[in-house]
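Objective 1b of the project was to move from sequence-level analysis to a structural picture of ligand recognition. The entry below was assembled by the postdoctoral researcher (A.K.) and checked by the PI before modelling. It contains the amino acid sequence of the target and the SMILES of the bound compound, zinc ion.
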Amino acid sequence: MLAGLNNLDNDMRTERTVTGMRSKALDGYWSWGAPWGYRNITDVTGRRVIEPHPQRAPIVKFLFEEYSRGTRTFRELAAEVNEMGDLRSKHGLKMSHQLVQKILTNPIHCGKIDVPTWGIATEGKHEPIVSVELFEEVQNVMRGGNSRTQPRNINNPDFPLRGVECLCGTHISGGYVTGRSKRYGYYGCTNTKCPYKKAIPKQKLEDSFTEFLQRYTPETNLMEALAEALKIVHRKQKRQNTQQTQKLKQKIEKLERELEDLLQLRLEQTIDNRDFLVETDKRKILKREIEVALQNLQTSNADEESAIDFGIKLIEQLPLLWKELEPAELRLLRNSLFPKNIQYTDAGFKTAELSPIYKVKAASGTDENRLVTPRGIEPRFQA
Ligand SMILES: [Zn+2]
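Corresponding predicted holo structure:
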């Protein structure tokens, strides 16, 4: 029984601090260095906590309020803060646009503790500097839409084709150029040394993508084959889900065994109560996280028929509605339909690999696009 616990002792020292920090964060305490706008203090119980910095917290508040109007960039705001001269001389304050961005995206300022690597997102015990509403509003402005502050934001719905590959292999991005009376949308390669570099008008690139989709969207008489292709994709997904489910279940079983072993060690008085609690806690937290992941897997396991119905409708209508999708949704869909990404060329889009769904039309022999060379067209779809 002890065999499985051999490395336990070795790891315990580092684990103890990590586990301690983690459980503090779970309890809503920030136990690391104070983020800009806060300062570290020790509370009455001797716990290391944070409180709003008397001079810096008002600046954080100012940044959130001003940015939420959607009229100023990070850079402009940084310059403005730096111009508040007396602050700079007293506290050596030098605000950069990167720091402005960091401050505006950190949920700690609205009272939350967010540690993505540990899957922790919880209410903090510290005093917020701005309201949750103001924080959300700022994130909204940052996502694009009504401001000129974040032209590079990948989720800006104005430029859904960001992330498409240029022939040089780098991704293309999009933005507006302001003319005398109107602004013009353009896409272009982000590689400064790109030999193909040129601005492609937004409308031109988007129309070209619509044509690209239309070219591969199976016609009504091919819908049966499309259903077959969707079945293959769905079954593959389901197989992956089953494998993942098994793995997660094994992890849970292992954790349960370790919990039993720890209890046994405690009963034998081989480990002290503190170590027992720390190690037990750590495994319980992990187990909870895995159980949540398991649940998510099970809900995504929709039944085959409705998944296929939905898939057919989506594929059929995609050339018409792709611009209406959320940029993040479109990105996901693009990744699964074109696993090797798509490239823009003077003659339109091309891709190195089509999903089985789009191979339906290519396999039917009606494909006239010479730019695309689908590798390994399946002879027939196995059921
Ligand atoms: Zn390029």
